[in-house]
## 1
Amino acid sequence: MAPDESGMPEPPQPPQSRQPWWANHPDLEEMRRRTLEELECGARDPRPAVDEPDPVITEIMSGECRRGLHSARDDLDRARENYDGAIRAARTAGYSWGDIARILGVSKQSLHRRYR
């Protein structure tokens, strides 16, 4: 610091204020312009047209998905019962575990684990 005429050192000067790199970036300026344009258009037409009912509200009102899930669970239970019954019937009829496994497309070991 150099002293001034009074002999007192001059206070340090703040560095020149520089704007950040993004303050006048052309791409960002364009994005800013488009965003403002979209906001202005949205202010003129605040509610977009709805072509279809809301799927969540539709499900709440109809319960279709819930009924479908219950039906699928019941179908799966019946299929498991049919599967088990067919395996027991095949064993009673004299089919070997290997024959049953080949027909079902599963391993003999998986049948043994489940039915022995």
Note: Residues 64-92 form the longest helix (29 residues).
## 2
Amino acid sequence: MEELATVVQKNNDKVEVRIIKHSACSKCDKNCGLAGNSHDQDQVFLEVEDKIGVKKGDRVLLEMEKGNLVFATLIVYLLPIFLMISGYFFGSWVAAILNIKSVELAGIAGTFIFLIISFLLNKILNSYFEKISSFQPTIKRVIN
């Protein structure tokens, strides 16, 4: 995946870049009700390692490996779903072992507990992936 960015600040071997995210309707000059607030532009600021020697104000091309992006996306979106389903069956299984009459309620409780666990796991994995350079975007070249 490639994105255009502007160097905002340079700190030794790292630079802070600004990416302007455009909505699908951002180039539309119609003011329709369907778009809502999607005509707005959002800015994202990232800290990226500077391996090519850029200057403040340079427009650069950032790239992130597609395989790592897909892997991270799968973890963020599928881990909670998988753990929620597992939590339901785990809660039901525990209720059956402990002879609790409302097995379904225990399954629902297990779902919410495992959902909270999935959020915690995602937070831990995020901090781990932030340290791995292959999961970070890199500056490919300066575009002027």
Note: The mean pLDDT is 82.
## 3
Amino acid sequence: MDLKSELNKQPFQPIQVVLSSGDRHPIRHPEFAIFTDYNSVYVFDSDKSPQEEPHPDTRGPVILSISQIVAVEPLSQTAA
């Protein structure tokens, strides 16, 4: 899956990006990902419930290097 094409699909289905480190970052709305001119993408995860303990890397926008993205998966695959 290609991140840009998944973000442009109609209707949009929530996805997650998987990094080479194994970290996963959900994208629940296409406007929660912003591409930069520097081969990176800002990812926002604003759907966390107040009870969830925030991961240190997801307290605000996370800047991901596009070269570190190894997979783009439907979010429903791992959400349980």
Note: The chain has one helix and six strands.
## 4
Amino acid sequence: MHHEPPYFKLKYAIYHPFFDAMIELSHTLAINSANHPALTLSQIWNGLILRITEQTRFTLGLDSVDITDKNHDESPTVYRRVLHFGAHQVRDSVFVVPQQSIEFVTEETPTAPSGRLLIQVNDDLSLTFSYTTQFPDPTNPEEEQLLGIIKAAYQAADADMIRIIREQALSVRH
């Protein structure tokens, strides 16, 4: 049975003087379907950990990732990372509850808002992705359309992540 991780209830200070609204998006994607060989919870989880430790395999334009701290002494396990996109750096913390959930919390910078992604592993081995990201309130149809494009990009990236996890699991199997 799936339980909400205890840290999920924490409220992160998500404010940016330029952005007064939040994008909230939640969707669930199946891992195992009739079209693909079934993956186990262990294979799925190993792929999710790969997203933390080898993020460049999952994020277009990401040059490298430095894991600056990893704390196994607490629950959840916490990774602190610096993601390098050319000259631009993003800092995040990743909270891991083994075989249940991973939460990415991106720090706010002067040029980028903070954000949050929670990936939960469900009993049926599907993954639920919940995003919270700062974004200006749409004031016209073009901005509303841009917001739709951003949400679609999140969903496409998540589907691609599942593809990469599947490829990794099948390559290890052989």
Note: The mean pLDDT is 84.
